[in-house]
Structure formats: structure tokens, C-alpha cells
Automatic annotation (TrEMBL):
Matches recorded under PROSITE patterns: CBS
Gene3D superfamilies in UniProt: CBS-domain (3.10.580.10)
Annotated source species: Nocardiopsis sediminis
Membrane-spanning parts: none
Name the record gives this protein: CBS domain-containing protein
Top-rank lineage group of the source organism: Bacteria
Length: 139
């Protein structure tokens, strides 16, 4: 059975909720990623910041990214999956919440990877990807 561990890309790290958005943007650039999970002071995931979040909720709103923290943009309940989750569980989580990136944690609740649309596209059959895309982008 294919699991989240098989689908994910590793080398992911999270940022502190006290990190400023200008620094988050620099890290995204340096790591060539479009999203980073955010941890609170207890090393628990409290959200995820995307490059789009920084542009829309900060820059386009006239705010200074050197003065806005990741915590200010984290809203809602963070979503994730575990390394041993099957493909159907991963797809269901992403589809039901219409999210395009899903952090992966291990049994010790440590961040070990991220699953993105491109990870799925490279590892799943075309029919499964087509169904996923149809659901994730549904209004």
C-alpha cells in the first residue's frame, strides 16, 4: 500500500509563529517552496503560510512584512496527515478542505515532509489525479 511517506517530499522545516513575513518569504525563496508550516512556542503546528498569503493578506493590504508575524496570518485549524496514512486518506483530507499542500508528521508528531499537488501528480495514476483536481478546484 502506498502511504503518505511514499508520496511526500522530505527536507521540510517549519517556522516559528513569531517569525516576520519578510523572513518567511526569504526562507521560501531559498528553499524554493511556496508554503511553510508554522509552529507555536510548544513546537506544535498552528498553521501554514503560503506565498499567496504573504502577498494578499500582507503586501496587498498595505502592511509591512517586516512588522507582521506568521502568527497573525495563521487562521483556522491546521490540517496534516501521518506518514502511515494511505493515499485515499491523504486525498480525502486535501479534497475535503480544498488544500493543495499537506504537512506530514511522524509518530512523534514531528514534521517530516509535505505532500503537494506535484508530488501527487508524479506518483498517482492520471485518473486519480484528474478526479482529485476536479474536486480540489470545485467551488
Amino acid at each position: 500500500m502506498t502511504t503518505a511517506a511514499d508520496l511526500m517530499h522530505s527536507g521540510v522545516r517549519w517556522i516559528s509563529d513569531t517569525e516576520t513575513l519578510d523572513r518567511v518569504a526569504e526562507l521560501m525563496r531559498d528553499m524554493n517552496v511556496g508554503a511553510m508550516p508554522v509552529s507555536d512556542s510548544n513546537d506544535r503546528m498552528c498553521g501554514i503560510i503560503t506565498d499567496r498569503d504573504i502577498v494578499v493578506a500582507c503586501i496587498a493590504a498595505g502592511r509591512d512584512p517586516s512588522q507582521v508575524t506568521a502568527k497573525e496570518l495563521c487562521k483556522g485549524t491546521p490540517r496534516w496527515t501521518t506518514t502511515d496514512s494511505g493515499v485515499s486518506e491523504v486525498l480525502q483530507e486535501m479534497q475535503s478542505h480544498q488544500i493543495r499542500r499537506l504537512p506530514v508528521i511522524d509518530g512523534d508528531k514531528r514534521l517530516v515532509g509535505m505532500i503537494s499537488e506535484s508530488d501527487l501528480a508524479g506518483r498517482l495514476p492520471e485518473e486519480q489525479i484528474a478526479a482529485f483536481v476536479g474536486r480540489i478546484y470545485a467551488d
